[in-house]
Amino acid sequence: xxxSGAEVLRQIKSRIDxxxxxxxxEQVTNGxxxxxxxxxxxxxxxxxxGARHVPKSFLESRIEGAAxxxxxxxxxxxxxxxxxxxxARTLIDDLxxxxxxxxxxxxxxxxxxxxxxxLPRTLTAEQRERYSRHLLLPEVGxxxxxxxxxxxxxxxxxxxxxxxxxxxxAAAGVGTLGIVDDDVVDLSNLQRQVIHSTDRIGVSxxxxxxxxxxxxxxxxxxxxxxxxxxxxxIMEILPGYDIVVDGLDNFPTRYLLNDxxxxxxxxxxxxxxxxxxxxxxxxxxxxxxxxxxxxPVPPPAELAPSCGANGVLGxxxxxxxxxxxxxxxxxxLDEGEPLxxxxxxxxxxxxxxxxxxxxxxxxxxxxxxxxDSITDEEMGVFPxxxxxxxxxx
Amino acid sequence: MATVRIPPVLRASVGGEKELSAEGSSVGQxxxxxxxxxxxxxxxxxxxxxxxxRYVNVYLNDEDVRVLDGLDTAVGEGDVLVILPAMAGGVG
Lengths: 393, 92
Fold this sequence. Notes:
By secondary structure, chain A is an alpha/beta fold. Chain A has helices spanning 5-15, 21-28, 40-43, 59-66, 83-94, 106-112, 125-130, 132-135, 141-150, 162-172, 205-216, 234-237, 251-264, 291-294, 315-333, and strands at residues 17-19, 33-36, 52-53, 73-77, 99-103, 152-156, 176-180, 221-225, 243-246, 268-274, 277-283, 342-347, 352-357. Chain B has helices at residues 8-11, 27-37, 42-45, and strands spanning 2-5, 19-22, 56-60, 63-64, 80-85.
């Protein structure tokens, strides 16, 4: 008569090495691969921090992804210590792993001891539906969507560029959107600033943008900064944001932003528009060039088109703003080739895109230095900074 | 003969053209030939010392001429020079 399951398990446990949770706790930090062999539903109720998940039913086919080296130290655990014993036997006898242990008492004993537990975050049923088209993309998935929900992005301006960027980042589920704008909605804005509406003329742009964003996606927290970005407030506003989206309309603030973002090591997704043409680049401090590497000094006021009112085709900031939003999402997801060290020029009339290389300047007055050495006094400063484009807006 | 792309801020100085064809075998020769035909571009492109203004970048195809040989960079038949001055948002 064949032995009972309990008898076989007893035999297996006598042949494999078992290890107490207190030892596993030390081994997690010593390079051992800790493998949770429970089912997905059990894993999602909590697991040992740093553990990998390979359900027992997929052990043979997936183990190499988690522990490619057969001489590696592998510790298995399940809920009570039985399934992991079976799994350990499989790894040793069938797959040739040399250094395998099974944790006694399983996750239940681990929890009873009061050891730390990782609770995997999950999306609500509503979020699964809302972001379902993201979840279908392998490049996004649940993990990517959670990165988006955790991300904090600061938009400088809820104007031509900021409007479409904010709308699509909100729709994508970027969890926190900071908006800096001291302006109110004007009728002449509505030709391109699609986050606002006719019935909100005279309303502050941060309030108007918040209303639209909240109506579109209540997952998004809006942080309103109703002010004009300047040397006196930039170091209070920027810290804590993961990415800054720059659609600034004047050079002094653009250099100030550059210097502060290098100091704080926050990437800036930057766009500029004029007439029928736009420019776009990503300045990721120390990974690529900064704005001063590209343009060491601003042009004189008479050549700086930002100093006066200029025409712009209404859809152009839409195009450029959405290219910015795309770059933001790529940076959050860490997917694709971000526009770092490259500058893209879009000509709407010709329907052409030209790309040029942007090099880091080894002598850059800002990003060639240690970020901590950049002082308040020198940020955004030029010899003729005060006189530059006086009253530029 | 090379093609020179003119950015929006300089177009008024070249009669509204987006692209010019200019003679020369180096970046410097080509830009000076642009200035000869369109004198208003002189102060926008060149600093008093004869070098390029620091706020204007010039690219030979997609490479910044400053990392090549500057104004001495050789330009071949059919090459494209892109002039890129700094641009701010322009419209809020």
